[in-house]
Amino acid sequence: MMGAGKSTVGRELASRLGRRFVDADDEIERAAGRSVPEIFASEGEASFRRRELSAVQGLLASNAVVALGGGAVTQSSIRQAIAGSGTVIYLRAAPETLLQRVGDAQSRPLLAGLGPQERLRRLQELLAEREAAYAEADLCIDTDSLGPGELVERLAGSLQPAATPSLGTPGVSR
Questions:
Q1: Structurally, how many domains does the chain consist of?
Q2: CA-angle at 104, arms to 140 and 127, nearest 5°
């Protein structure tokens, strides 16, 4: 979800793991030559989602920590593409926490132009719509009361391979 901390935590986690960090939205913007809000405004959400799938498919072999957009895993094609490619992590936060983190949300196409209460309702709706897809993540961490450093510590600990390899040992986060 937007505001969960994917980009902030992802950068720190990548550094901790000695990996490259990639934000899928940044890749989409680079390829399109314009911002996500501009893509939404000129082409619509469906076109953005097609671009998102293409970007994610291109990133899967990158051995990087990848921050996916909040709606990425709602697409079955993206869920199928990322399955088995690494550890999928859901940074869960309450709608009220997300609202605080996104601020006025003018750069967030799904929230832009809404007042605070409308943004909260929209975040609640988005979470309800997306929860089943998010629940498929390999690892879920509640972020409401944790700062980025604490989240990175927990994630790094969860992703470290066991001393003796065994089935189910988590892989590197994507």
A1: 1
A2: 30
Instruction: Summarize pLDDT for 113-152 with one digit per residue, the tens.
Output: 899 999 999 999 999 999 999 999 999 999 999 999 999 9
Q: How many CB atoms lie within 10 A of CB 44?
A: 10
15: closest CA among 149, 161, 170? 149
> pTM for the complete prediction?
0.82
Which helix or strand (DSSP H or E) is residue 156 part of?
Answer: helix 148-159
- Residue 159 inside a domain? The answer is no
Tell me if residue 41 falls in helix, strand or coil: helix
Q: Is residue 69 part of a domain?
A: yes
- The C-alpha atoms of residue 79 and residue 172 are separated, in whole angstroms, by 17
In the numeric block, which tokens belong to residue 165? 């390899």
CA distances (Å), 133 to each of 127, 136, 140, in order? 10, 6, 12
